Amino acid sequence: MKKQTSDLEQDMNTATVAQEQTTASETNPAEDKVAEEGTTASDNVSVEPSLEEQIAAWHDKYLRLQAEFDNFRKRTIKEKMELVERGSEGAWKAILPILDDMERAVAASKKSDDVESLRQGEELVMKKFESVLSAAGIVAIDCVDKPFNEEEQEAVARFAAGEEKHGTVIDCVQRGYKMGERVLRYAKVVVGE
User: Fold this and answer.
1) CA 83 to centroid of chain Cα atoms
2) Three-point CA angle 12, 44, 5, nearest 5°
3) Any alpha helices (H) in 28-114, and if so which ranges?
4) What is the pLDDT along the chain (193 residues), one digit of tens a residue?
5) 168, 145 in Cβ contact below 8 A?
6) What is the b/e burial string over 2-27, where b = at least 16 CB atoms within 10 angstroms of the residue's CB?
7) Residue 151 phi, psi (nearest 5)
8) Using an 8 Å Cβ cutoff, are 169 and 158 in contact?
9) Residue whose C-alpha is closest to residue 129's, from 91, 185, 179, 186
10) At CA 172, angle to CA 170 and CA 173, rounded to 5?
């Protein structure tokens, strides 16, 4: 049925074009020459693609677009994974010199009996490590003798310390650290009751 309708429409279009050319050729002798040179009315008709061809073309475009998007998604995931893997690379490179200093301190402690110089060496290594952390934006949470803050601290014990120390951090068992406003590790504290 559909094919018969399209054939009928094509025949009607061809007849209309032929009639228009006949009318035009009566008024335009240049077109008569073109007709004499062997061109026919069907050569001048622009043939529109059939509905099936349009559907096939759009389907092909859809499949190509879907494949392109899938490739884009895979590439983006791969780039994110590489970024995560290499994102911490700079931090680890900054820590390696501190490891070298620790190795030298251990080697020096085996050879030396001077406890005071060993302590000074340990303090220098610790200060160097703290400077690397602060350069990365990581700071220790200061909490001793301050009110207990559950957003930055974790109470591991309660201690009877009198009314004036109620709700105040008495001791820090393990230091906590923040990077900007985000807590990396909560401080473990003893709170007064």
Assistant:
1) 9
2) 25
3) 29-36, 41-44, 51-87, 89-111
4) 444 445 545 555 555 544 555 444 444 444 444 444 444 544 555 567 899 999 999 999 999 999 999 999 999 999 999 888 887 787 788 888 888 988 888 888 888 888 888 888 888 898 998 888 888 888 898 888 888 888 899 999 888 877 888 888 888 899 999 998 899 999 999 998 8
5) yes
6) eeeeeeeeeeeeeeeeeeebeeeeee
7) -80, -15
8) no
9) 91
10) 125
At 51 the three-state DSSP class reads: helix
| Inter-axis angle of helices 115-135 and 89-111, nearest 10 | 180
Q: Hey, what are 69's tokens?
A: 């998007």
Residues 6+ apart with CB under 8 A from 50: 6
Q: Specify whether the CB–CB gap between 143 and 153 falls below 8 A.
A: yes
177 within 8 A of 134, measured Cβ to Cβ? no
User: 3-state DSSP call for residue 181?
Assistant: coil
DSSP lists the bridge partners of residue 158 as: 191
Token pair 């009566």: residue: 26
Q: What sign does the dihedral 66-69-74-75 (CA atoms) show?
A: positive
Euclidean distance between CA atoms 45 and 106, whole angstroms: 93
Name 169's Cβ contacts closer than 8 Å, sequence gap at least 6: 143, 144, 145, 146, 147, 148, 153, 189, 190, 191, 192
Q: What is the DSSP letter of 186?
A: P
Q: How many alpha carbons lie under 13 Å from residue 111 in its C-beta half-sphere?
A: 6
